[in-house]
Amino acid sequence: MDQLKKFNTWLKEHSKQEPVRSDPKGKEEDPFLLEEDQDEEIGGLLQQYGVLLEYERMQDLLPSGMYVLPCFDSVLTWQGALFVRQGLYKGAVFKFRLVLPEEYPDQGPDLYFTSDVFHPMVDPKTGQVELGSLFPEWRPGRDFAAFALPHLHRAFLRREYFASSSRPALNPEARQLFISDPTAFAERARSCAKTSLLHVYDNASGSALQFTKGPMEAHDTIIEHLKADTSSSLEERKTAFIDWFCDHYAHKRTRVGVAQGDAEAETILFDAKAQPKAGYPKAPVKAAPPILSRSSILGAGNTPSADEEFF
């Protein structure tokens, strides 16, 4: 990222020894205090740099259907959303936050759902997610906060996260219900998924991840165009559109809204009749990602054990 390169250059320039300053009365300030303050400032900047670098490199770890952004107020708090695409919670949109302590990376992170989630590994009062099984002992330099993201994704797919006694249950009621009455648990999970959709547009203050209601006419037009083109599969067409959209708006600060007397609001509409250069390419730039399956998660040729069944 260019921002990280600029930050690194700025940090090197400002880490050089500065001359002793004087206060307005002409009295010299204590050079030891100045050096201590400078070291503390540089330490904080280095920590932020490391966190941003970890965030930049976590893309290979980020599961399908999960989106994460650092907060505007602090890079030590990441806001995220998980779109559950299969399993007992299929269709849910669960929001969460990953909190890195001031001592990070010497101490591990905490993970909390901001959505109500009925799950054995989620505390029903605080929304905290159990990470002890993932990080039995935090190892600075070997363990990273981003490791918690695939762990969170697997928690909705693998049976071991629901029933295994080796994983502490922060919600014993949910675990007992899953073991004793799976049908009742499945109903609670479906209800939980439906409830999450009612609060999708409840955005936390200071969060960079904001959900807004876009113009439905644009949404419908895009869907119709994607379905109308039969020259490639739907997955390939979706990938092509996303590639085009990201490339087209990557360097624009666009506010999406429905123009209702507000001249500043911009409604993004997809023009299916536009020239080829204005629309997205019909042929995808790269192959479409594979559909999530048992083999894609476990690895080809692996047979899941009783504790690794997928729903």
UniProtKB/TrEMBL annotation:
PROSITE patterns assigned to the protein according to its UniProt record, in alphabetical order: UBC_2 (PS50127)
InterPro entries (alphabetical): Ub_conjugating_enzyme, UBC, UBQ-conjugating_enzyme/RWD
Residue ranges occupied by any UBC core domain in the UniProt entry: 46-198
Pfam families: UQ_con
UniProt superkingdom: Eukaryota
Sequence ranges of Basic and acidic residues compositional bias: 11-30
Ranges where the record places region Disordered: 1-31
Name listed for the protein in its UniProt record: UBC core domain-containing protein
Source species: Effrenium voratum
Organism lineage: Eukaryota, Sar, Alveolata, Dinophyceae, Suessiales
